[in-house]
Design brief:
- By secondary structure, this protein is of the alpha/beta class.
- Helix content is 28%, strand content 29%.
- It is built from eight helices and 15 strands.
- The strands form three sheets. Strands 11-10-9-12-13-14-15 form a seven-stranded mixed beta sheet.
- The longest helix is centred in the N-terminal third of the chain and has 13 residues.
- The radius of gyration is 20 Å and the shape is globular.
- It starts with a strand and ends with a helix.
- Bound molecules: ribose-5-phosphate (R5P).
Length: 281
């Protein structure tokens, strides 16, 4: 078995290979004079594992080319962060279901697909091969353990994500809750834990994705107003669009962490072990 990668997922691919006890194969990337992409896999095996978060259009194209170059092999495609997955329905007439378009394009040549904490697992139904979503909630839990906090309160930004908070909290037997948003006026909202008080607690907001950071930043400032001792953020996918990281810093978060599904300086825990475990299965 060999692990191959696109340029933006090199760290995760090499960590996954290490967990699997196999090698990464060198992939040469280049461009033709007209700007079209060229790649060449230098060392193939019967089983190939492609690790690539589809973080931009160039990477999507690299994945399509890698899958084609793996012709005749048994290919597992790992999409740790699947771009376009959030447009999972037609909100207006004339729009694409982008998640479906991506799933169709990326199924060609793959025998199985793994995603990591995809926003809506129903997207998996669009793949033309077996597809499974993995959760790295236990890795976030392990990361929180390293903080040495006595009794952290794990919070999800909304009720829909409370099961995720519960899975993280189960690692340390910690309290968990979801934040409840109340609209006070057209422009004013307030947010507080639904069942537990934040006062004097070390709060950690966990979520599948930190996109613009707006939800986390609002939650953090509200929790501080309610007397939280400290507020930290841990998201699986750290997108930080539109100055999201700065927004979170300005909101006074004591720590901002994400996984290596998107490789950033904030990548403080890894999806590699859970991916390797699934591939081995
Ligand atoms: C929403 O349901 C997701 O789980 C995230 O909470 C959301 O995408 C975060 O977006 P942002 O960082 O832009 O507030």
């Amino acid at each position: 078995m060999k692990v191959i990668y696109t340029e933006k997922s090199q760290l995760l691919a090499s960590k996954t290979a290490r967990c699997l006890g196999c090698k990464t194969s060198e992939v040469k990337y280049n461009k033709f004079p007209d700007g079209e992409q060229y790649l060449r896999i230098m060392d193939s095996d019967d089983e190939m594992v492609v690790v690539s978060s589809t973080v931009d259009a160039e990477t999507v194209m690299q994945v399509i080319l890698l899958l084609d170059a793996c012709e005749g092999r048994d290919v597992t495609l790992v999409l740790p962060y699947m771009g376009y997955a959030r447009q999972d329905k037609k909100f207006n007439e004339g729009e694409p279901i982008s998640a479906r378009a991506m799933a169709k394009a990326l199924s060609e040549g793959a025998s199985r697909v793994f995603t990591v904490n995809i926003h809506d697992p129903s997207v998996l139904n669009h793949f033309r091969c077996r597809a499974e979503n993995l959760s790295i909630a236990p890795e976030i839990g392990k990361y929180i353990k390293t903080m040495g906090l006595e009794s952290p309160l794990i919070l999800s930004p909304d009720e829909g994500a409370e099961n995720f908070a519960k899975a993280v909290a189960s690692v340390g037997g910690w309290d968990f809750d979801h934040l409840n948003k109340t609209r006070l006026s057209g422009s004013e909202v307030t947010m507080a834990p639904k069942h537990l008080a934040a006062d004097g607690r070390d709060c950690i907001i966990v979520d599948d994705i930190i996109a613009t950071g707006g939800s986390m930043a609002l939650a953090a400032s509200m929790l501080k107003e309610q007397g939280a001792n400290s507020v930290r953020a841990a998201g699986v996918h750290g997108v930080f669009a539109s100055g999201g990281y700065i927004k979170l810093m300005q909101a006074g978060l004591a720590d901002i962490a994400s996984s290596d599904t998107i490789e950033k300086a904030s990548s403080k825990f890894s999806a590699s072990e859970i991916i390797a475990e699934a591939v081995r299965r």
